[in-house]
Amino acid sequence: MKKSRLFLALIFVIGVAAFVVPAVSSGSSNGAVNWGLAATILVILVIVAFFFEFEAAAISSKEVALVAMLGTISAILRVPFAALPSVQPSTYLVICSGYVFGPVAGFMVGALTALVSNFFLGQGPWTPYQMLAWGLLGVLAAYFRRLNPGRAGLIIFGIVGGYLYGWIINTWYWTSFIYPLTFRTFLTYQLTSIWFDTFHAIGNAVFLGFFGMKTIAILERFRKRFSWRLSSEPGGAQLPSTLSAAGGEQQPL
Amino acid sequence: MIRIRDLTFYYGDASKPALQGVNLQIEDGEFVLVTGPSGCGKSSLCRCLNGLIPHFYGGKIAGGMEVQGLDVMKSTTKEMATRVGMVFQDPENQLVSMDVEREVAFGLENLAFARDIMAKRVEESLDALGLSGIRYRGVHELSGGEKQKVVIASVLALHPDILVLDEPTSELDPRSAEEVLSIVQRLNDDLGMTVILVEHRLDRVVHLVDRMIVMDEGEIIADGPPRGVLANGDITSVGAGVPPLVRMVRRLRDSGFDVDDIPLTVKEGRAILKDVFRGAKVSELPKTESTNSGEPVIEIDKLWYAYPEGLTALRNVSLRICRGEFVAVMGRNASGKTTLVKHINGLLKPTKGKVRVAGIDTQKATIAELARKVGFVFQNPNDHIFADTVEEEISFILRNLGFDGTEMAARVDEVLEMFGLKEHRRQYPRSLSGGERQRVAMASVLVASPEVLILDEPTRGLEYRLKSELMRFLDRYRGEGNTVVLVTHDVETVAEYADRVVLLSGGRVVVDGNRRDVLSRALFFSPQINRLVQAFEKYGVPNNIITVDEAVDILK
Amino acid sequence: MISFRYREKRTVIHKLNPFCKLAWVASVFVLALVLNNPIFLLLLFLSTLLLVITAKVWREWTSFMKYAIYISLTIVVVNTLVSYQGTHVLAEAPFTIPVMGTPTITLEAIIYGMAMSIRLLAIISAFAILTLTVNPDDLMLAMIKMRLPYKSVLVTALSTRFVPTLISDVERIADVQRSRGLELDKCSLPKRIKRSASVIIPLLSNSLDRTVQIAEAMESRAFGSGAKRTFYKDIKMSRMDIVTVIAGFAPSVLGIVMLILGFGDYQYYPTLGRMDLSGPEWTMLPILALVVSSVVFLAFLKRGVDLD
Fold first, then answer.
1. How close does chain A come to C299, measured CA to CA in Å?
2. Minimal Cα distance from C177: which residue of A?
3. What are the pLDDT digits (tens) for C108-161?
């Protein structure tokens, strides 16, 4: 358990470094380090590392089915729908998933959102960045919970999350296609998607404000149901026909 | 062999036991039917047999279970999987792979079988279910019946000794249901597999099984050969859906007729009841008055509809439905039933032709405007429910239609009263029982007091007691001068409640008439009683009897 | 109806081994990022077209390109507006913005932006071929083969499998709620979001019910932790397949070679360099085209071998 936290922290530091380092480097020449390539490789490594983490954490069919279903909902809600015009609740759902089910589930739901929806929208070099961006929002939401944020906190998280997402996605374009890689050009590239990111941030805020708590309550209720435990000794046929006490509730997963 | 001793089980948060003091022994090769009202513990019993209870569900458990020599409490679900194959209600939720072949192999992969053994087992299972032709198809392209067959194949690939099926046909249309059941029977017959089948449509299965178990409130209340169990009065009191034929025989016995056996099939019925009908003085059947006399409320004129993907679903449909009519819309899958009724509340707009409801042209009105006139109840009440309380759920439509304040409160109170939901008004709707949720869904539509009510397969998968509760309500609602349009596959229900039957095929109306004319002497759409009386025409029995009541009345 | 971008087609490209296409796309990606010279980038882009034509996915490919062109424009604009480097100054602002400095437009920046657009087009074109010609199923099989953790692949497969199911759920629930007077299209965005709860919440709750049933069904078929598992399907690798996979990697090898030799580079700043079309570097042009499109020739060759 401790080891995996350490691992998560490490991954997180590497992840952040991947975006901060190019932002502060002077970037005098394109030759020395190919930042576009380096960032992509790093992003893929982080994702794979989380996959391994999930392999260890998801012990049963319950976790597998849960993550898959949340990922599916979030993925299909990203695809434009006749039934739900211009409403994209993916991010809000990823945030709620991470908030309730923890960092690994949060990451996986986020990563699935991008990977699965892109089978329908089109895979591209952006796929790993989207996986990482949504995945990190899921992870952050899980840690954000420790602060007991409440509704207002969630709204703020949603707004920040919307911009953070845009920042991560833009990083790819910036490192690969813009010269020179300086803070100035970095900032300008962020500005190109400012409208999109602002809409995303507002959307998240509205979703989380209107029914973030409700969604969390539904997921929470489900989590409790899922972590029922057997409370009598599984003694089999030798067991006396009296019921053992109801006490001794075990900790949820 | 299955041996269960004094089994009591509570789900994690429950105060009432799901199973209480269950003792049961099932021999190899038996075909056992388990039935009872919803919440009676039949599904929990199934889940015990392969260890999902207690290993998956947790909860509190006492007693002993032994299946094929394995102690269920001590064995993992993985070990149990090769002994007991489980098939659940909704095939959609049991298919986890992208294509048929891989689905069948899923269990074998989990048990790490070598590839050559897998290939052989997959082949066998596909053959056994006749699925070789669709082996490469994606699971989402399959029909409901095909999906359920794939599920059975995937379970058979593990070579279980026991097959447990928990309402495997309740999501299927009648034809697929029959096909699935005949496959199950063959597995029991040819391969000697022990079969435990949970089913509430008894008329489909009683003649197939060796033994019938009835449960109520977690206990077994009847257990024995089907004839004996069906003869026993207790099972109707718990709301099990006794087949019309059996109901008839029991009614006849009660009124003093000498019928010494319980028929399980129509054929047996003809033999057993031959003497009763031959000897009896048959009275006239009361005339069915035509209800098609009021002013028309739904007028469909030369309606054509083509889906955007190009499929033409309706071809030149014309239909007039009057105030106070109860119309059943029937037909095979994909015959256009749902497409037709979606035109009545404007969910779909005609490609060609005209639809007028209460004088409003649907082409020119929004769905919300039409919602004041037309209520639409869908099959699954869970699709309706999203609010935190029953009250809020019910007032949703009123808010959308611009009601507020006292008017809204009064209306909500009225329907809460009408549906007996008063004490639940502040409850979370999803925590209610299935029957209560269905009432919430109904109430949430009827609160807007529509003149027309459309129901799309509301009885599919519904147990007998809830079904008759629903139908009685519809009868009353219709009696108040409103119109009911019911889409259904359920011939017995139609025979009892509808006035008029519209039969669709390939997007056209092929038959439209009163229920008696449409349902009697029809090859596939006849109710059980009608199929029975066909044989007695020679004794002067009218061949258009369609319900138990009529058959009994005629003999009096 | 929403559906996969992938469509089954009977072309030699579709029949190519998924590993070959994965390797090829990764290689084109690397090569595109290594190359700087606009002529080389353009040739790389044109070489990907050979696959698009052979795979008969021209129409689907153009929809990717529409998106790519949109991004390309922002790349040109941003480079033009913020680079400030280069000696051929076309315009200079008479003011200075804090942090941003004095906006300057140079010829070099415009040319650089355009070259980068071509780089982007080449990359997106390659990914479009991947999306359009590799069955997601095979992609997942490939992920397993590449020793990616099984459960991650399983959740991806499971999730993809349930996409059509949940889409029809959304459509059905939306029908239910619209029948109850819900109007989603004629109102402001916040209101629309608020109202969409009546679709999203039932969808979520129903899906959680599904989750339990799916987990039960998996458990009943011996899915569980611990023991190893085997796989029914396999990606068969004939000798010819291995050759195609190697060919798939060839562009990245070429990229590294060119990087070492210093080929394919071009000086944009501070002054646009001269392109000397006589040096040994230019012999690389036909080699590049050949290497990138070699998979097409091998694909035809493979069909010949398969038919034997």
1. 23
2. A83
3. 999 999 999 999 999 999 999 999 999 998 899 898 888 889 999 999 999 999
Q: Which residues contact C128 (CB under 8 A, 6 or more apart)?
A: A122, A124, C52, C57, C60, C61, C64, C65
List, as ranges, residues 242-271 from C with C-beta within 8 Å of B: none
Mutation target to probe the B interface, by most B beta carbons within 10 A, among C8, C179, C184 is C179
| Cα→Cα distances C259→B445, C48, C278, Å | 70, 21, 19
Residues of B in contact with C6 (CB under 8 A): none
Kindly compute the dihedral angle of the four CA atoms of residues A6, A10, A15, A20, in this order, to the nearest 10 degrees. Answer: 130
Higher local confidence (pLDDT), B80 or A250: B80
Question: Under CATH, what is the fold of the domain B296-527?
Answer: Rossmann fold (3.40.50)
Q: Which residues contact B547 (CB under 8 A, 6 or more apart)?
A: B244, B495, B496, B527, B529
Using a 10 angstrom Cβ sphere, with 0-12 exposed, 13-18 middle and 19 or more buried, the burial of residue B465 is: middle
C183–B140 CB contact, under 8 Å: no
Q: How many domains is chain A partitioned into structurally?
A: 1
3-class SS string, B349-390: CCCEEEEEECCEEHHHCCHHHHCCCEEEECCCHHHCCCCCCH
Note the pLDDT tens digit of each residue in B161-210.
999 999 999 888 888 999 999 999 999 999 999 999 999 888 889 999 99
Chain A interface, mutation test: which of C72, C187, C211, most A Cβ atoms within 10 Å? C211
Contacting partners of chain C (3+ CB pairs under 8 A):
A, B
At residue B288 the predicted structure's pLDDT band, cuts being 50, 70 and 90, is low
In Å, what is the CA distance from B21 to each residue of B70, B166, C30? 20, 21, 68
Please indicate, yes or no, if residue A1 is contained in any of the structural domains. no
Residue A76 is part of which domain span? 7-22+33-225
**Does A247 fall in a domain?**
no
Is-cis flag, bond preceding C270, omega within 30? Answer: yes
User: In the predicted model, what is the mean pLDDT of residues B157-161?
Assistant: 95
pLDDT band, very low/low/confident/very high, at A4 (cuts 50, 70, 90): low
Tell me which residue has tokens 């599920």. Answer: B151
Q: What is the pTM of this model?
A: 0.91
Over pLDDT 70: what percentage of chain C?
Answer: 98
Q: Which domain CATH number covers A187? A: 1.10.1760.20
pLDDT, one tens digit per residue, over A152-172 is: 999 999 999 999 999 999 988
C224/B77 Cβ within 8 A? yes
Q: What gap in Å lies between CA C91 and CA C82, rounded to an integer?
A: 12
Residue C171 touches partner A, C-beta closer than 8 Å: yes
The rounded distance, in Å, linking the Cα atoms of B333 and B313 is 12
Instruction: Label residue B292 by pLDDT band (50, 70, 90).
Output: low
Q: Does domain B2-237 have CATH number 3.40.50.300?
A: yes
Query: Do the domain assignments include residue A231?
Result: no
Asked if B62 has any chain A CB less than 8 Å from its own CB, the reply is yes
Smallest CA–CA separation between B322 and chain C, in Å?
21
> Which C residues in the span 134-153 are in contact with B, Cβ-Cβ below 8 Å?
136-137
Average pLDDT in chain B: 90
Do the domain assignments include residue A248?
no
Q: How confident is the model at residue A15, as a pLDDT?
A: 62
A30: pLDDT strictly greater than 70 = no
Maximum distance among all alpha carbons in chain C? 75
Option in C120, C151, C212 nearest A177 (CB): C120
pLDDT bracket for residue A16 (50, 70, 90)? low
Measured from the Cβ of residue A174, the count of other Cβ atoms closer than 10 Å reads 26
Please answer yes or no on whether C116 and A176 come within 8 Å at the CB atom.
yes
* CB within 8 Å of A220: residues ≥ 6 apart: A100
- Whether residues C218 and B85 touch (CB distance < 8 A) is answered with no
